[in-house]
Amino acid sequence: MFDELRDLYQEVILDHGKNPRNFRRPEDATCLAHGNNPVCGDTLVIYLTLDSDERIQDAAFQGQGCAISVASASMMTDILKGKTATEAKRLFEGFHNMCTRDDFDISQLSDCDEDAIDRLVMLSGVKEFPIRVKCATLAWHTMQAAVSGDEETSTE
């Protein structure tokens, strides 16, 4: 069972890495940020279109990076559509903790969208490979910067 689940997660990540969703530059983006992972050279630009209530109407990205970095950006842009900036920040915190903390308990995210959490769990396996954590979280750090009005961020 565990091997089947791991294989499914790997398949989803590879699919998003090879066929990224929302890989484009929207004309009406209201905020953006450039993200850089100097360890491996991944670079992303995250574009968000927020309405007057700070709800994310559109999310997209451009850039280049490893399969994990691109897959994470692809999955993130799908997940964020329709969320508020506050919900997006909460998902970032949860995902970051999921990828970095050994004592993380998924029930800590019971206030978040269950489907989003299920999808993010697929990427949390990077915790076993600490150097890959920055690849998986680059898009999320960059989204956080965009929402906060910062135009640049780095995983360093």
Question: What would you note in describing this structure?
Answer:
The protein has a four-stranded mixed β-sheet with strand order 3-2-1-4, with helices on one face. The chain has helices at 2-18, 67-80, 85-100, 114-121, 130-148; strands at residues 31-37, 42-50, 56-64, 152-154. Helix 1 (2-18) packs across helix 2, helix 2 packs parallel to helix 5 (130-148) and helix 3 (85-100) runs antiparallel to helix 5. The protein contains five helices and four strands; from the N terminus they run H-E-E-E-H-H-H-H-E. The chain starts with a helix and ends with a strand. The protein is of the alpha+beta class and 156 residues long. The protein has one domain (2-154): Alpha-Beta Complex (Sufe protein. Chain: A), CATH 3.90.1010.10. Strand 2 and strand 3 (56-64) form a beta hairpin. 47% of the residues lie in helices and 18% in strands.
Q: Which sequence of SSEs, written as H and E, runs from N to C?
A: HEEEHHHHE
Named at the architecture level, the CATH assignment is Alpha-Beta Complex
Strand order of the largest sheet: 3-2-1-4
User: What's the CATH first level?
Assistant: Alpha Beta
Note the total helix count: 5
The profile of the biggest β sheet is: 4 strands, mixed
CATH topology descriptor: Sufe protein. Chain: A
**How many domains would you count in the coordinates?**
1
Fraction in helix: 40-55%
Query: Can you count the beta strands?
Result: 4
How far apart lie the N and C ends? Answer: 37 Å
What characteristic shape results from the CA principal axes? globular
